[in-house]
Amino acid sequence: MLTGKQRSYLKGLANSIQPILQIGKGGIDENVIVQFDEALEAREIIKATVLKNSEDDAKASCEYIAGMTGADIVQVIGSRFVLYRESTNKKVIDLP
């Protein structure tokens, strides 16, 4: 669970990164969860986009993916969301 200070710090980091994953009309399946899991392990913080043709909204998708990957939700704005999970092998981000 992230504190307010940690969440604020991560939001600042997320401003400069581009979305690396998209959720489209196919929705969220096992392959999407695996991609998010691998991306979180490699980068610790990721930004993703939910396309307009997707059945789910960004908040619901974000909550589901966070639950399945063990990640913390940093923020959800419009159709984009940011997730954080500390890497077990390559810890890069030091939280305040």
Polypeptide structure, described:
It is a single chain. This protein is α+β, with helices and mostly antiparallel strands and 96 residues long. It has one domain: YhbY-like (Translation Initiation Factor IF3, 2-Layer Sandwich), CATH 3.30.110. It is built from three helices and four strands, in the order αβαβαββ. Strands 1-2-4-3 form a four-stranded mixed sheet, with helices on both faces.
The helix-and-strand class reads alpha+beta
Distance between the termini: 13 Å
From the structure provided, what is the oligomeric state, counting identical versus distinct chains?
Answer: single chain
Mean pLDDT reading: 95
- Please tally the β strands and state the result: 4
* Strand and helix order: HEHEHEE
Biggest sheet details: 4 strands, mixed
As a percent range, the share of helical residues equals: 25-40%
Cα radius of gyration in angstroms: 13 Å
Shape: globular
Strand content: 15-25%
Any idea what the CATH architecture is?
Answer: 2-Layer Sandwich
